[in-house]
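ESCALATION

Customer reports they have been waiting on this structure for their group meeting. Please prioritize. Original submission:
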Amino acid sequence: MFDSMINNIENKLNEELKEYHIKEAMMLNLKKNKDEEEEKLKN
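Update from on-call: job pushed to the front of the queue and completed.
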């Protein structure tokens, strides 16, 4: 009983962590694209 509660919490945390990493990767990608566009405008 207690083990399954812990397991459920771990699964939820892992899902949230995965979502966080996906969002972080998307933000980094947007920043990279923005930086590349700004660089193009300079040249």
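Sent to customer with the following note: The mean pLDDT is 97.
Escalation resolved.
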